[in-house]
């Protein structure tokens, strides 16, 4: 019968297997980005890997607690997953609420600030290399010609003037805010979807925790 003990157990296991697969994807993405120098900042790649490891531990805890029907472990799993749902739901809503102008002002404030922080400098280099742009507002064509990582590839069909040299040497203020704004919208939508799957996991874990194992000893304390 669906909704019984075995159905709740299998549903919770499948959901945690999904979380487990997502954690492997995050760990693989962080490791690949670091190994191929897509992200040269170790802290950023390490943060992606740490997120994957945390999700791996949560999913492993859910699988073990569900398999053993362990009351204490299920309780901790419910609490941690509910806290994760609150954090991810709040962050997703914030990502969807941020406008492109707010993104531009925030990036400009950090980009143009005087700082010798190595993480900031590496992040700026990553951004210039990924978005193929140079500087924030000053478009120096000589600098662009000398720095190959700042030269964009062949202009796409969407470019109106394919012979204009400025298309291959754009400032980062022209490219990054628009791209980041759309990335935030996409991330917010995906994060909002997965936050509801986490709430589904909380509901399944609570339901499963309160159910009695039909194969257990009838006199066993629950």
TrEMBL record:
Hydrolase in keyword set: no
This protein's UniProt keywords: Disulfide bond, Membrane, Transmembrane, Transmembrane helix
Main location: membrane
Localization per Swiss-Prot or TrEMBL: Membrane
GO cellular component: membrane
Membrane topology: Multi-pass membrane protein
Regions that span the bilayer: 12-32, 44-67, 74-99, 186-206
Disulfide linkage: 134-150
Family, as annotated: Belongs to the tetraspanin (TM4SF) family.
PANTHER family (UniProt xref): LD03691P (PTHR19282:SF452), TETRASPANIN (PTHR19282)
Name of the protein in question: Tetraspanin-13
Species assigned in the record: Phallusia mammillata
Gene, per the UniProt record: Tspan13
